[in-house]
Amino acid sequence: MSQNPTPETFPPSVIEMMKAGGSTVTCLPVKIDDDNWQAALFFRLGGHESQDDIELLKARDSALTVGIETDLIEHENGTVVLLRVQMFTKPDNPLVGEVLITPGGAETHYEILTLLGSQETLTWFLSDQDFQIIHKQRQPLNDDWRKEFLALRDESFKRDAVIRLAGKYSAQTAFAEVVSHYALRG
Fold first, then answer.
1. How many CB atoms within 10 Å of residue 164?
2. Long-range contacts of the stretch 21-25 (C-beta < 8 A, 24+)
3. Which of 30, 106, 109, 121 is the most buried (most CB within 10 A)?
4. Residue 21 CB neighbours (<10 A)
5. What does 17-86 look like in DSSP terms, one character per residue?
6. Cβ atoms 50, 58 nearer than 8 A
7. pTM above 0.70, yes or no
8. How many whole angstroms from its chain centre is CA 50?
9. Of all residues in the chain, what percent are helix, strand and coil, respectively (each to 5)?
């Protein structure tokens, strides 16, 4: 009698972090396939509004078109790097998520941008509400993207150094202010 294999899930540390922060998308350093660390995107889908996307992703065995937009949010207490990620499950209605990074306030966040600035590919993991992986894919990162991630890291770090000298630096305050402008989908 054969048993069904245990479904692959996000790593326990990723699940714990996402639950603690209430996030549905994040970018974290992980080890994939070898002993080298790299930044990877984790996207959790859930709820009735995501059911069609979940079914599409479960049935998909090839890569989807993805997009990433970046921005620096300059707050008086610190700099927040915005990664706006899109996965085109439907050409006219992509899955969209935003990752907020405070490179001057969290060592892991600085590391994420450093890794993105040096790695050849970016791995995307998408899960259902129970963190079971329903789709994963790798996207190549060209030199222009790697330079962009390093430029974001360097610019935010320099800006935060000036804010520190003025005695106003607080990554938590800057992050909280940016998050306060988000609203949950009703």
1. 13
2. 24/97, 25/85, 25/97, 25/98, 25/99
3. 109
4. 10
5. HHHHHT-SEEEEEEE-SSS-EEEEEEEE--SGGGHHHHHHHHH--SPPPEEEEEEEEEETTEEEEEEEEE
6. no
7. yes
8. 18
9. 35, 30, 35
Contact 131, 9 (CB under 8 A): yes
Distance CA 104, CA 154 (A): 10
Note the pLDDT tens digit of each residue in 129-159: 999 999 999 999 999 999 999 999 999 999 9
Helix 107-116 vs helix 143-165: angle between axes, to the nearest 10 degrees?
150
Q: In the structure encoding, which two tokens stand for residue 150, read together?
A: 């390093």
3-state secondary structure of 176: helix
Report helix, strand or coil for 98.
strand
> Considering only CA atoms, which of 171, 124, 118, 104 is closest in space to residue 148?
118
- Rounded distance between C-alpha atoms, residue 85 and residue 82, angstroms: 9
